[in-house]
């Protein structure tokens, strides 16, 4: 199959597209007439679908054929050009907007009812008094419990138009009758700053989990608070951050760089370039900075790390990042679905492309972790393969490399043992959440008058809780020996209990105790005199 024959059907998918640029400020001048021009290959595909629709011997859902066709086309372009079906679009849009309209709770479909994990701070549900452990039984007389309840449709009754009201009937342990609440739906934030607190008197910590529309305002608020508390140094944690809007990443970088410093270069297939620069006085231009990255830090995270590294600002700590240097634009397909199509590459200020190769297909691309594991680069920076042809130099003479991710200034190895990998997974994946919810369902009242500070300093996860989790999770049957990781397991359980009681800040605060990368930062912070002694 020739190149044109293989790829020109892409025109079908974008014929009615309306560009919504994801994060970038590119303004390339492709003519609309050129993009949407009629051609025989597009007509051929339309005719084939009509033949199947009207003449094929069996009933066929041609909508699904179109979905499969669009997916097939995009998969043959690059790993990051993706199709968003109608039924997934709104959830994707909420995630990128950084908010949704609803009542503001996190919940489980637990057994045969809707169990509130906790009300989101400042949200509508919290304001009317809905608490963790409550069961929502009815929403506007719609039954939300029982085996016949369709769990996928539950959110439809809790979300709705902004300022609309929903009447809830709630069961609460200890109450003789059901409680009635009327909740006005509001915009509820999907928090992208997981945590912000002081590591010591001078050093602050902020963890960003993605770059949505609201991330910069969350970040600015967190940074201002820490500055007011007296910090002069900051740890910006971008580990496991998959990216998001480029414009958000640029605004965060702007807080650290002087005016007119180059942040990012984007270049399309015609070679047209767009450069973005720091534009104003940032709040932390004179502060000392550390940026934490790992193998799952991608896209906008790499823009931040690369811009700072190339401008000799701060110290990048961790392991080589994912390696995504492609820019997508979202384009509507006219039926509520959309594509995110790669329209440019981005380059760091020194001119580096950090996009890793993807010529061997999507499966090989996304299994790159296994390759890194096998070649030893998760344990030793010396195992990272670099090419002299992709060598660049920063203004102060630091040597940096392109060709696949950001290589940190200070390397921190990963514990790749099966037990530790398992522990890391269960700590952050939500695996423990059901067990913790069941534990709190029985003991929640014991935490009623305990502040987070008292919980962090005084609550001890005892052997009974650990044994209960091991029995619940059946790890003993999997023959995983977690005995030598018992303290880490206790910490993970405490962090998950803290999260359900006090929120994500509590979770990160507890889980970060003895974190290797944070310990490395604290080690770097020690005065040289102490190091020499």
From TrEMBL:
Say if the entry is tagged with keyword Ribonucleoprotein. Answer: no
Q: Which GO terms describe its cellular component?
A: outer membrane-bounded periplasmic space
Q: Which residues form the Tail specific protease domain?
A: 176-357
**Xref: Pfam families:** PDZ_2, Peptidase_S41
Q: Name one GO molecular function term.
A: serine-type peptidase activity
Biological process (GO) annotations held by this record are: proteolysis; signal transduction
Its keywords, alphabetically, are: Hydrolase, Protease, Serine protease
Similarity remark: Belongs to the peptidase S41A family.
PANTHER family membership:
CARBOXY-TERMINAL PROCESSING PROTEASE CTPA, TAIL-SPECIFIC PROTEASE
Please give the name of this protein.
Carboxyl-terminal processing protease
């Amino acid at each position: 199959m020739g190149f044109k024959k293989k790829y020109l059907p892409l025109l079908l998918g974008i014929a009615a597209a309306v560009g919504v640029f994801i994060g970038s400020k590119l303004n390339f001048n492709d003519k609309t007439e050129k993009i949407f021009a009629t051609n025989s290959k597009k007509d051929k595909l339309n005719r084939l679908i009509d033949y199947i629709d009207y003449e094929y011997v069996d009933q066929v859902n041609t909508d699904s054929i179109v979905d499969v066709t669009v997916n097939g086309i995009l998969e043959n372009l690059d790993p990051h050009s993706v199709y968003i079906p109608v039924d997934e679009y709104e959830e994707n849009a909420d995630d990128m907007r950084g908010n949704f309209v609803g009542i503001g709770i996190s919940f489980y479909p637990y057994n045969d009812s809707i169990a509130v994990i906790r009300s989101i701070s400042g949200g509508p549900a919290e304001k009317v008094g809905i608490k963790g452990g409550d069961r929502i039984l009815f929403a506007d007389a719609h039954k939300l419990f029982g085996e016949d309840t369709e769990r996928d449709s539950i959110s439809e009754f809790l979300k709705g138009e902004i300022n609309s009201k929903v009447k809830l009937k709630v069961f609460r342990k200890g109450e003789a009758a059901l409680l009635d609440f009327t909740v006005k739906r509001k915009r509820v934030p999907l928090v992208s700053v997981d945590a912000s607190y002081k590591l010591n008197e001078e050093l602050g910590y902020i963890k960003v989990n993605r770059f949505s529309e609201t991330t910069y305002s969350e970040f600015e608020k967190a940074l201002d608070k820490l500055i007011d508390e007296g910090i002069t140094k900051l740890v910006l944690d971008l580990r496991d951050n998959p990216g998001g809007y480029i414009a958000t990443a640029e605004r965060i970088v702007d807080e650290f760089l002087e005016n007119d410093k180059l942040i990012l270069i984007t270049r399309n297939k015609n070679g047209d370039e767009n450069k973005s620069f720091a534009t104003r006085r940032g709040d932390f231009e004179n502060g000392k900075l550390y940026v934490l990255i790992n193998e799952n830090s991608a896209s906008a995270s790499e823009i931040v790390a690369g811009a700072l590294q190339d401008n000799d600002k701060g110290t990048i700590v961790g392991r080589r990042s994912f390696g995504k240097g492609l820019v997508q634009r979202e384009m509507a397909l006219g039926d509520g679905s959309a594509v995110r199509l790669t329209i440019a590459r981005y380059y760091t200020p020194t001119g580096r492309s950090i996009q890793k190769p993807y010529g061997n297909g999507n499966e090989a691309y996304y299994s790159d972790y296994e390759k890194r594991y096998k070649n030893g680069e998760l344990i030793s920076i010396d195992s990272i393969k670099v090419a002299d042809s992709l060598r660049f130099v920063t203004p102060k003479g630091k040597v940096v490399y392109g060709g696949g991710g950001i290589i940190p200034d200070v390397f921190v190895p990963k514990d790749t043992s099966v037990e530790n990998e398992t522990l890391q997974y269960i700590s952050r994946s939500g695996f423990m959440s059901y067990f913790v919810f069941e534990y709190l369902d029985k003991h929640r009242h014991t935490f009623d008058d305990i502040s987070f500070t008292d919980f962090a300093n005084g609550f001890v996860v005892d052997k009974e809780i650990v044994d209960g989790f091991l029995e619940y999770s059946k790890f003993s049957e999997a023959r995983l020996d977690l005995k030598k990781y018992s303290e880490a397991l206790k910490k993970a359980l405490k962090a998950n209990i803290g999260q359900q009681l006090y929120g994500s800040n509590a979770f990160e605060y507890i889980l970060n105790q003895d974190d290797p990368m944070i310990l490395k930062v604290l080690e770097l912070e020690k005065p040289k005199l102490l190091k020499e002694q």
